[in-house]
Amino acid sequence: MAFRSPVPDYLDEIVESLADDTNGAVADYIPELAQADPDRFAVALTTVDGRTYSAGDDDVEFSIQSISKPFAYAAALTDLGLDRVLDKVGVEPSGEAFNELSLEGESHRPMNPMINAGAITTHHLVGGPDCDPDERVQRVVRVFSALAGRELRIDDAVCRSELETADRNLALAHMLRSHGILAGDAAQVVRGYTEQCSILVTVRDLAVMGATLAKGGVQPVTGDAVVEPWVARQVLGVMTACGMYNGAGEWLTAVGIPAKSGVAGGILGALPAQVGIGVFSPRLDRNGNSVRGLRTCRRLSADMGLHLMEAEALGAGALRSVHPGTLPDVGEVLVYELQGIIQFRGAETVLRELEGASESGQPVVFDLARVPGLNDVGRRMILEAMRRLLLADRRVFLVDPDGVLPDPDVGDGRRPEIVPSASSTDRSH
Amino acid sequence: MAFRSPVPDYLDEIVESLADDTNGAVADYIPELAQADPDRFAVALTTVDGRTYSAGDDDVEFSIQSISKPFAYAAALTDLGLDRVLDKVGVEPSGEAFNELSLEGESHRPMNPMINAGAITTHHLVGGPDCDPDERVQRVVRVFSALAGRELRIDDAVCRSELETADRNLALAHMLRSHGILAGDAAQVVRGYTEQCSILVTVRDLAVMGATLAKGGVQPVTGDAVVEPWVARQVLGVMTACGMYNGAGEWLTAVGIPAKSGVAGGILGALPAQVGIGVFSPRLDRNGNSVRGLRTCRRLSADMGLHLMEAEALGAGALRSVHPGTLPDVGEVLVYELQGIIQFRGAETVLRELEGASESGQPVVFDLARVPGLNDVGRRMILEAMRRLLLADRRVFLVDPDGVLPDPDVGDGRRPEIVPSASSTDRSH
Amino acid sequence: MAFRSPVPDYLDEIVESLADDTNGAVADYIPELAQADPDRFAVALTTVDGRTYSAGDDDVEFSIQSISKPFAYAAALTDLGLDRVLDKVGVEPSGEAFNELSLEGESHRPMNPMINAGAITTHHLVGGPDCDPDERVQRVVRVFSALAGRELRIDDAVCRSELETADRNLALAHMLRSHGILAGDAAQVVRGYTEQCSILVTVRDLAVMGATLAKGGVQPVTGDAVVEPWVARQVLGVMTACGMYNGAGEWLTAVGIPAKSGVAGGILGALPAQVGIGVFSPRLDRNGNSVRGLRTCRRLSADMGLHLMEAEALGAGALRSVHPGTLPDVGEVLVYELQGIIQFRGAETVLRELEGASESGQPVVFDLARVPGLNDVGRRMILEAMRRLLLADRRVFLVDPDGVLPDPDVGDGRRPEIVPSASSTDRSH
Amino acid sequence: MAFRSPVPDYLDEIVESLADDTNGAVADYIPELAQADPDRFAVALTTVDGRTYSAGDDDVEFSIQSISKPFAYAAALTDLGLDRVLDKVGVEPSGEAFNELSLEGESHRPMNPMINAGAITTHHLVGGPDCDPDERVQRVVRVFSALAGRELRIDDAVCRSELETADRNLALAHMLRSHGILAGDAAQVVRGYTEQCSILVTVRDLAVMGATLAKGGVQPVTGDAVVEPWVARQVLGVMTACGMYNGAGEWLTAVGIPAKSGVAGGILGALPAQVGIGVFSPRLDRNGNSVRGLRTCRRLSADMGLHLMEAEALGAGALRSVHPGTLPDVGEVLVYELQGIIQFRGAETVLRELEGASESGQPVVFDLARVPGLNDVGRRMILEAMRRLLLADRRVFLVDPDGVLPDPDVGDGRRPEIVPSASSTDRSH
């Protein structure tokens, strides 16, 4: 019998246990959405390593709707830069319903890109001011496809159906025009925005797209850097502050996963450095969020420890040991054996230990054999430690079999000496 | 020359470079606060491992003021449990100034514990309904002292001075009483709350207290579990949603550190699983936040990658290698060598690999020698993997020199066989 | 030398004394309005008797703009009745700027017909649901012309200019459509509403139109009952509550004249039973009201006692005297000599006196020779008094040389006996 | 059989027909109020001539509660003048519930004196800044008694009962203190305000007090000028804008009587120059207004034409006739026979006629025999007409048997010649 991962079993269990919940109602203000099969239910989860798990109706396509907002925001940030986007759209929670104006006092900016006024403005920013409306939609589809790792397409029937009842969005577009926030033709912008909302996805697509944000913009399957790290961080921050229409605080405390829901019943989740999540179930609560979708997110957070504020079991140190050792042709050395990913916190423990050490003058070995990676701060701090040791006329060696610290220039051209390993002379650990 | 950590140098540089910024003004509505030396400036940073770095006037005591709010909230959650606290105080951003009522529509709950109405209510919850007012204050001082790791005390002069201009808080207390949210005598509750606000701290205290929240409630120096992990998570979540008076979204995107400021010029920061931060500089901007304090937080976030949404360099896998090996008296085995802290994401990579492996029937070795720790989900997932292998009649061995997986019962009484190590037969890595 | 009324002199003096006030700025968001001569200034005043006084540029035409709102409301009330209009537009002050949505909570009705959302809705109600857009505009022009007593026309250049920057109104129209308040095509309704706003008037037109409202809907020059009394009352009430954008209370206390201003610089005033007022001066304050127009209204109110709450010198009684008299062929009678217009209050004094009189059984004479008129309540009360006297077998006579009490049926077919006069036997008054 | 006025019958009919309406509930938040007999029902109406009619439980005393607000406002205006009162309390409708803060943006003034925050502030203004709290209450009782024409007294039991649940008012007082609006001790001011609210009145008192406002401040029974005309006008204006908690516009259009309601079930009405109204029925609707009280006001407005915007039947002119006549020793004259009360409008008709007359040089007679009175503007305009005639060397005579135009100095010392009457030579009218 082959080994079977418990993760799919777990997702199956969620789908099964929540299937009975038929609360809520399918969105009925758009005829095409009203025809959705209310019993559809699917969940998917993609790790930042690129593995996707799913359960339920994971191959059913549905229109992305408002879940398009964070991704279009990512595209606009990429195309225009942060400042030009912030000129037109804020980042503050609005405390109001998604289709209200919520313009900020003096600037008349929409409060954030997750409400319709902000999303319409954001759509129009994609591709820059000279972008043709059709090109803009194509650019949106292209970015979304890159995030999902497959060619996505627009559901024309949904789009047409929504355009028939687009008065609210037309109202917003005209109001934005009147405040000088939106420059394009109101009807054309709304058409483009509606096409963006009509892009079809599955829960697997959403999970992969979310995982891309969670991985700092790197698509975990294709490996493409679809958006830059600052863009992913900005999008996740705005999702956290403004993503779930009502109750940002309740969501942040009880679930703790940056998220966005859509009126077709989809929910996107993305936990930095961990996972992307996609859920689909068309019945919505009064706030317009998928009933089973919300419950699924709560289960994943509670069962999996997937929560922004989770700090459990992280006390273990990055410095595995400091021990005497020997190097051929060098003699006695002091070995600093690191472990785990080295961020600020890990590097700090190494620096602290170095500081406390006696001024022996002994050569120092940094053993990174158990280190899978360093982030930018971790790398800079370790190099700075080496620089200071070198300045004090200490010899510095580096054990780095996996090459996690390539090109170890400490800043002034000097580098540690690379050695394959250091033999320990203290066998006590 | 002794090695000197660059972290203090970095903090010194921050203090030096921002010292020139004399924008803002010392709070003047409380006579005692108005007398603060506006040039004071200090910053401290405590890692979840318990090391505190600081620079500037790091031994100057100042009144904690509104920074007491998250800690009193932690005390109330501890004393009454989540539901009874949520009955009286919400968790949503108010979008209004700190001293406005901001009561929720039907419940009349204050919107959150970070505005004064919510903080007064929260103070009164500490110790439960039968707690004597004096006992309540003592309990607050005790909890705060436990968080800081030293005996804190109340500044009576500040307290008296604030009580002379306590009309706003008295107004809030009476209004809360009129809505049945507050049961105690209004003047007495305001006195107790004002005493809470008058507790004296240094930036080092704040950094340690923040680090306690960042470490799931475990004081990183004393090792005491001052509050439970869910309490720390709830407090951090509310700080994120409601901590910085205006501009929650701007703070969340641009800085990304759960934080709280006080009118005496203090700022508390706490990044889950990383650090606690304390800053002190009495000059405030129009929103009542310390001018240099805000700039310091921005520098720390930008320079140190201290940001909730940071996902950089975390792609490295938990599964260092899978290779054939041999065990004495067993023979050929398949070794799964793990590395780093194992959370959901790490465990998942192991499960995935197991799933993909051929049904060889070979014994399996889990080598945790490079694993500094597992969180609860990681532990459960690894044990589940073992259980499934045992169910399939595979032999399962565990290498765990540091005892990071103690008592490895897979759920039905069975356990992996403990071995000191497995010799690799594949030398290619 | 001919006698010259001081009223024109007074108006001339106002125009002269306020001419220096060049504060404010001509509305610049509509190109055509921006070209207005800012120095234009005119005032007109029409009594309910139909005399119009004016001063300054009283023959300059300007677009009526928002002053069209009360008159279109009158037209809609006439065409649909009160209930059907109230279904779609409320009567409450909005406390917000004129171009905001201000929709009521559940009904989504615009708060009142004086804000743009309500005015757009009101325009569409004119002529009823089956009215063709062009017919609707023609109906508006026709009603306005009947109110002004001359053929008014639309300024096509202003209309075209406004339609070029009609985004706010288009936004409102679409939003109203989305809430089911507005049924027509958004662009078409906005065009019709803009045509309504582009109707050209002079201050003399406005004064006459206002006087028509002040006279219960009767055009004081032509004598036509343009709208019914309840319509005039409803319009005046809404103008009082919602007419001046900000500061309804300040206007009501300090000026006390129901009023409406327009962005072209016009102001309409209408004091029930007294006068209509028109002012024109294009420079606007920050609230969009004509600076000199407001000051003119304040002067008129203060100098002329034109104020809704004015109660000065009204203590004089409706009952001039009760005295013994004689009638040929009848003998001794008791004469009740009335004076002034008999409303509730006046009739009441007569009834009171009758009640106090001794039960002499003497015939009673109602002498209305000094009564210029009775309102409906006054008429009914006097007839009821006669009825009761007749029931008590008293003879009742009526002196009514001007026929102010035509057809004096007391309700059961009986009537007082008409006599030309009664000679007084008591010469003491 | 004595004549019986139909007015009492009419009020009896109202009481009888509305007695069945047992909707609403007695206010229960104050124990003493909760004990009120819910079936009590009374209505009273006082004319500006001083006659009071009443029906139902017209001798039952109840606490005045919020109806004290306009009268205390009148007292404060009298004691401090308009500007100093406006410094502390605004005049704008708040759009919020009566017990909310509703402070204006920059000034922090309460929005108006009809909400509790404004009423507490107003109470404290009575008597000026140096007034002792007890003296202040005595001054309030004294002013109210003067308005009612009898000694009113405080219900101590109601006052004590309200003080036990005074948290909202204490909250407001502290908040007002914190904004520098209120200077006194919060608890003391609330006690004084609560005493003010506990003054006992009957519907007859309210009707008389209202009639005093309606008569420009002159108590219609005692003839005392209790407050100045501008005070009465200001109070009536504020009642109109802010008196009925919700729905100022609905009240203004549908009822049209400045009014104020109290939580004990009272309603005060006052129609300028017409009547004061008092109603009492303890069952309240959700807005805190007496259910039967509101219906009574609606009936009175509809049946009696008692409406601010009423303009019916007022077309009749002030100029009864212009005819040739003769004066002994003078010869042929032109007689202008006036009628009714002469306000601006009436005087204007005379001036207009004078202007149109041929330049005959004939002497002019102003016959005021049918004029019961002139207001200030009317008086000034008639005198100005005389002045201009005298300037043109016309002889001017005055017939004024009732002395309605005493001391007819036209401004430069000249006066018309007084004559007893002028014989008409034109018998056609």
Keywords:
homotetramer; 429 residues; alpha+beta; Transcription Regulator spoIIAA; 2 domains; EC 3.5.1.2 (chains A, B, C, D); STAS_dom (chains A, B, C, D)
Give your account of this protein's structure.
The structure is a homotetramer of 429-residue chains. The first copy, chain A, has 429 residues and is of the alpha+beta class. Chain A has 2 domains: 6-304, DD-peptidase/beta-lactamase superfamily (Beta-lactamase), CATH 3.40.710; 319-424, STAS domain (Transcription Regulator spoIIAA, 2-Layer Sandwich), CATH 3.30.750. Chain A contains 15 helices and 15 strands. In chain A, the strands form 4 sheets. In chain A, strands 14-13-12-11-10-15 form a 6-stranded mixed sheet. The longest helix of chain A has 16 residues, at 133-148. Chains in contact: A-B, A-C, B-D, C-D. Chains A and B meet through helix 11, helix 12, helix 14 and helix 15 of A and helix 11, helix 12, helix 14 and helix 15 of B. Chains A, B, C, D: It holds the Pfam family STAS. Chains A, B, C, D: Substrate binds at residues 66, 116, 162, 169, 193, 245, 263. Chains A, B, C, D: Its EC number is 3.5.1.2. Chains A, B, C, D: Keywords: Acetylation, Hydrolase.
- Count of alpha and pi helical runs of chain A: 15
Radius of gyration of chain A: 26 Å
Mean pLDDT score of chain A, rounded? Answer: 89
Percent of residues in β-strands of chain A: 15-25%
CATH architecture grouping of the largest domain in chain A? 3-Layer(aba) Sandwich
Helix content of chain A: 40-55%
Greatest interface (CB-CB under 8 A), with counts per chain:
A-B, 92 and 92 residues
Distance between the termini of chain A: 39 Å
* Count of strand segments of chain A: 15
- Strand sequence of the main sheet of chain A, in spatial order? 14-13-12-11-10-15
Low-confidence stretches of chain A: none
Provide the structure class of chain A: alpha+beta
Question: Quaternary arrangement of the chains shown?
Answer: homotetramer
Q: What best-fitting shape of chain A do the alpha-carbon axes yield?
A: elongated
Could you name the CATH topology of the largest domain in chain A?
Beta-lactamase
User: What's the helix-strand series of chain A?
Assistant: HEHEEEHHHHHHHEHHHEEEEHEEHEHEEE
